[in-house]
Amino acid sequence: AMESPLVQETKRIVAQFDYTGTDVNNGVKEFLRQMNEGLQKDGTSMSQIPTYVTGVPNGTEKGLYLAVDLGGTNFRVCSIHLNGDTTFNLTYSKVAIPKELMVAKTAQELFAFLAKQIEQFLKTHHEDHFEAHIRRRNTISTPDGFRDEHIFRLGFTFSFPVQQFGINKGTLIRWTKGFDIPDAVGKDVCALLQQEIDLLHLPVKVAALVNDTVGTLMARSYTSPGKTSTLLGAIFGTGTNGAYVEKVVNIQKSVDGEYDKSTGDMVINTEWGSFDNQLNVLPNTSYDIELDKKSVNPGIQMFEKRVSGMFLGEIVRLVLVDMVKNPNIALFKDDNSSTNDWRSTTNIGSGSSLHKQWGLDSSLMSIAVADNTPEHSTLRMQLEKELQVDSASFEDTQAFKEISYAVGRRAARLAAVALGATVLQSGKLSEASDEPIDIGVDGSLVEHYPFFRDMIYEALAAIDGIGPAGAQRIRIGIAKDGSGVGAALIALVAAGME
Ligand code: ADP
Known about the structure:
The protein is α/β, with parallel strands linked by helices. The chain is 42% helix and 16% strand. It has a domain at 58-223 and 483-493: 2-Layer Sandwich (Nucleotidyltransferase, domain 5). A hairpin with a 3-residue loop joins strand 9 (232-236) and strand 10. The site of adenosine-5'-diphosphate (ADP) has 19 residues, from helix 10, helix 12 and helix 15. Its EC number is 2.7.1.2. Residues 10-222 form the Hexokinase N-terminal domain. GO terms for molecular function: ATP binding; D-glucose binding; fructokinase activity; glucokinase activity.
């Protein structure tokens, strides 16, 4: 039978998101090159930032710590009790970051909001602790009248590129993920947060600056099954990034500041979101180009723009907008509509989010891929609710599914480039051992997008130097609440260094 123009067009577009085994291998080669370039000098596309964290935990660490996480969509505050037996108890609150604060005039506006959330959290969950401090205020002579041993050590997870100068010192290099407060660039983000905490007289010391990937790595290593220490922590959420354990001898650029030299290792925050900003090997469809052009940071974070949750939905949206505008394709149209004006003939309400930048959340892709009901009824309902698309046809929903699958699959195979290259860089596969090579992952995309991990494994097995046997040794596990527990573990390490 003749295929409809919609089916043909869907096939044509899906093919543009193919990312073959050869592409994966070319990606790995270039990823290794850019990783090592970043270890040699500053100003490279992957920053390869030394974190001053020189080892990963083994599960015996103990104590009560605070952690906050500013990384994307939400601000999280939590307290963590490490039990010292690979388990922990976590108390948690989260609030959406108001959009206007992401692009505030001054850094102070954003950080005052964050300090307020910490105050609220302490009042709600640690009232006794908090009141005791207030009572002691005038009798004890620490700056705020708090007893030093009662001051919460806080790990500040700040998931943007920073130049770190010590375990609790670091200046913002640039914003990503839709944030844009030029005033904050170049400033020490720990000092900015401490200032606002002190204005509220809270018993809190910002003890450690933590990238969420480093936190994920630490948390996974504390909780990981068996006695294996974790090699790599990776995030696939709003953004994407990874941190891994590197040998200090491989870090040829200078590392200023104090750190423990006895382990011979240091955790490196790769900032792989900006892998291949120069587009030597990354795929680059017309949709990728358009997304980049209309973003707040064109030409930057090019890997992230093809891999992470914030961008995948937008890629799909740009594809759909193109299809909807083409009268021959008849996406989201009544069967009997025949005019060329797509605005009047589509089944899309005029205020549809489909026509707004960022209007399609990547969670809708997960729903689409997961919906295998004969009528795609879940997807159809969700299209109505989220995109105001009324009575989509089966061909419409099928096209939506296939495009979502293709964009998600390309992202997973690109993710495998980063994971596979890091495994090869570690040299662990050539060590005679059958210990698993442990990787901790976190983020909604890897947690919820159907088969994301399976698609990663499939691509890992296709990498020269890994192959199916190597892929089997790689153990990818979810590091739940990674940034919270991990930040507590780094605050613990930092408190020991005071
Ligand atoms: P963050 O990275 O901000 O800490 P998350 O890990 O929850 O938080 O990631 C949020 C991102 O993940 C958003 O970009 C959102 O679009 C995307 N996302 C949320 N749920 C899903 C899902 N079910 N499938 C795919 N992507 C999702």
